[in-house]
Amino acid sequence: MNFVPASARPARAVVLWAIITLALLASPLPTLAQVAKWEALIRSGNTAYQKGDFRAAQPQYEAALVEAQRIGKDSKEVATTLNNLAEVDRNLGEFERAKQRLSEALVIQEKRLGRGHIEVATTLNNIGAVLLEQRKFADAVAPLTRALDIRDRSLGANHPDVGMAANNLGRAHQALGRQAQARYLYERALVTVQKSVGTDHPYMAATLNNLASVFSAQNNLAKAEELVREALKIDERAYGKEHPQVAVDLNNLGFIYRKAKRFAEAEAVAKRSLVINEKYFGANHPEVAQNLENYAVILRELGRATEAEQAVTRAQQIRRSATSG
Fold first, then answer.
1. Is 316 left (phi over 0), alpha (psi -120 to 50) or beta?
2. What are phi and psi of 260, to 5 degrees?
3. DSSP labels, 261-312
4. Which of 68, 109, 222, 316 can pair with 77 through a Cys bridge, CB separation 3.0 to 4.6 Å?
5. What sign does the dihedral 283-231-94-297 (CA atoms) show?
6. Among the listed residues 175, 227, 177, the one whose alpha carbon sits nearest the alpha carbon of residue 206
7. Is the backbone of residue 180 left (phi > 0), alpha (psi -120 to 50) or beta?
8. Is 151 buried (19+), middle (13-18) or exposed (0-12) by CB count in 10 A?
C-alpha cells in the first residue's frame, strides 16, 4: 500500500485567454471568425471538464484543435488546446498521449515565446505531472525543476503557482528517496501557499498531504495523521465528499492506520476511497486499480486472503486493459 503525495493538478492553459483577446483585435477578419469558432469550442470543452465529464470535453477540444491548426500550426491557440487535451488525457489515464500533446505544445511555446516564458513553465509542470502519474520520477525532475525556476523568476516566491511547482518537484525527489530535499520543498510550498491563498485552499491540502508523507516515512505517525486529517477537512469543504482528491486523502489516512496496525480503521477509509474513484472515474480506471491494490494489502492484514486475491486480480485486469489500449 502506498502513501500518495498530492501533486497539485496542473493548470490548464486557459490562462492564455487575455493574450488571445489581444490577438483578436489585431487579426484580419477571416482569422477573427476562425478564432471565435475556436474560442466557442474551448468554452464548451471547459464547461464539460469543470463538471468532471472528460469524455464530453474531449471531442470539443479535438474540434478546437482542428480550428486552431487552421489559424496556424504553430499558433498559441494550438499550444493552448494541446494543453487542455493533455489534461483530459491525464484524467482518463491516457498518459502517453498526454505527453505527446504536451511535447508538441512545448515546442511551439519555446519557439514563439522563449525557453524562460511563464507559459512554458505551465507546460513543463504539466509534463512533470503526467510523469508523476506514470511513476517516472527520475524523468519528472528535470521538467519540474525548470518549471519551478521559471515561476520563481517570473512570479516571485509567494505566488500559488510557485507553491504548486515546489510540491510537484518535492514529490519526485521523495519518490527517489531524497527525503531531506522533499521536506525542504514541501515546507517551502507550505509557506508560499499560506501567504498566497490562505489556509483553507486545496493547495494547502495538497501541501499538508505531501508533508505528512515525509513524517510517515520517518514513523512520526501522529503528526502525519494530524496533517492528513486537516487536508481531508479542507478538500471536503472545497470539493464535496465524493471527489477524487478526497479519495487521495482517505488513501493516505488508510496508509497511516495500517502502519499503526489500526486495520479496521484502515479498511473503512480504503473502501470509501475505492467507492469515490469508481463513481468518479469509472470501474476500469488506473486510479481504481491503485485503490484495489491498496485495499488488498489491508485485507491480507485482516486475514481475508480470498478477498485480497480478488481485488488484486481485478486491479491486474484494469492495468492490462490500460496498457493494451
1. alpha
2. -85, 5
3. T-HHHHHHHHHHHHHHHHHHH-TTSHHHHHHHHHHHHHHHHTT-HHHHHHHH
4. 68
5. negative
6. 227
7. alpha
8. buried
Residue where the block lists cell 476562425:
34
Contact 227, 212 (CB under 8 A): yes
Report the distance separating Cα 177 and Cα 154, nearest Å: 30
Cell of 202: 486545496
pLDDT in tens, the chain (325 residues): 555 554 433 333 222 222 222 233 333 444 788 889 999 999 999 999 988 889 999 999 999 999 999 989 999 999 999 999 999 999 888 999 999 999 999 999 999 999 999 999 999 999 999 999 899 999 999 999 999 999 999 999 889 999 989 999 999 999 999 999 999 999 999 999 999 989 999 889 989 999 999 999 989 999 999 999 999 999 999 999 999 999 999 999 999 999 999 999 999 999 999 999 999 989 988 889 999 999 999 999 999 999 999 999 999 999 888 766 5
What is the longest distance spanned by two Cα atoms in the chain? 71
The DSSP output letter for 13 is G
Write down the domain spans for the chain: 219-325
Q: Give me the CATH topology for the region 219-325.
A: 1.25.40
- CB distance 130 to 98 below 8 Å: yes
